[in-house]
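Changelog excerpt

This revision adds worked examples to the README so contributors can see how folded entries look when concatenated. The first example is reproduced verbatim below.
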Amino acid sequence: MDDSELFAAAQRLPATRRPLLGLTILVVEDSRFACEALRLLCLRSGARIRRADCLKSARRHLQVYRPSVLIADVGLPDGSGLDLIRELAEASPRPSVILATSGDSTLEQAALDAGAGGFLEKPITSLAAFQERILSNLPPDRQLPGPRALYDETVEPDFLAYRDDMAHAADVLNINPEDKTLAYLAQFLGGVARSAGDGPLAEAADRLARARRKGKPLTQDTATLAGLVQERLERRVAI
């Protein structure tokens, strides 16, 4: 079933089962796996989704339309999602809801300080938690009347999207394994791995991030991470 079929199916559900009907959500997320989870959550909530994988792409979207909701990953390949959050929090008109997301929960306060109304820690799989975070941040005139009955379920992204993320990481390692790139890669792979429950990859990404912060040599940790990425690319079924 493609996006249009899923969205059409969502329209046939009672309003209480699609509380985000009428909202357009711009998701700025470089991980295909995390974005697939958000796509499923949006479709099951009745919302339309637009996607951008970097700041440049997000800003192109914003030149054309203003979404109802922005969900921006903090770590992006061409900069920090906090910069985009800061820009839109001060814009007029601005999105009704601005949320930040990351696999690193310590970034929540920085996101709130930048102007986000809330923080979604990865993995984002709970339908009820996703809907509640958006609904609770809507302005009063857009709130649903009466009590809200949120129906909880979890989404399971297609692991082909996980392999796409591994391919992206391998390309980054092959093209530009410099310090700034390794900082982005450690953050990217750590978030993806935690979203997918891939403990060994998450631990390797965290080791690389710690070594970089402490100014230690990165060759061994980078090689370990590259080997784990390659292993996952060679598997027919990830994890």
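The second example, added in the same revision:
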Amino acid sequence: MPGGTSSTPQYEALYNGLEPPPFKMPFIDSPDVVTSNTLRLVGETPDARKRLLFTSLTRHIHEFVTENKLTVQEWRDAVAFLNRTGNMSTPDRPEMELVLDIFGVEALVDAVNSPPGDNATESTLLGPFYTHNTQDVSHGDSIASEGKGEYMYVEGRVLDTEGKPISNALIDTWETDDTGHYDLQYAAEVPDCRGRLFTDNEGKFNFRAIVPVAYPVLADGPVGDLLLAMNRHNMRPAHLHLIVDALGYEKVMTQFYPSGDKWLDSDSVFAVKKSLIVDLETVNDSERAKALGFKNPDKGFKLLKRDIVLRRK
């Protein structure tokens, strides 16, 4: 902090004995000098990758300030916004992550690191409500407790890019209930609407779930203020999350989006990819529903049938 001192002995020890840089820098007499001095010091970063990132970040931030002639009040408002965002952020509510999401940053990182190029299933955002605290389910079991929403049956295979089945692939899946809330938002002690299973020897998987619904991202904090300022909605289209992992293959984090959702092409966090949109088949066969284990088979169910293709490492 400006004018402050370190109060932690381990950090005081780290900084003891440091000297000024081995070069002279001019005193500030123009905006350009501020930028050049900052870049000169950042350029002393020992690690090459960090030096590249810090230098590029510094250059872009300084260009933003000078290009837009940022006022002192705008700067103070920005700092207050960041402080408010940090204070609101918790493990169950990563507000700062969501700020970056609504500016498309996480979607862009995903697109840069996972370009399409073969028939492998495309990745997308992990989302803030993933947790290792889930339930193990067998094939045909339900990841959702009864009464959480409209019945859905999910089935498919996990394959490599040559079409060969991948056995013992881990599938970790989760979704909201019919009100658009994840179990973590209820502080539930028992995982619900989420589960983990493995493919069989033929790469097949199947489980019961519920039809996902569209829902709003949390908007009662800084993220909501930003969206309102930009005249944007805060909706995410309905989706089912999946992480699929198998030995010797690249893990994929993805989401399947039922077609027909009105929010598909304006997702508030820019996560929808065309290849991840799926058609749900309506099945009104009570005998089939009963055989699959649905407790109220007369209601029928929706069928989501989709294979997942993994790249070899």
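Reviewer comment on example two: The chain has eight helices and twelve strands. The chain has two domains: 22-70, 105-310.
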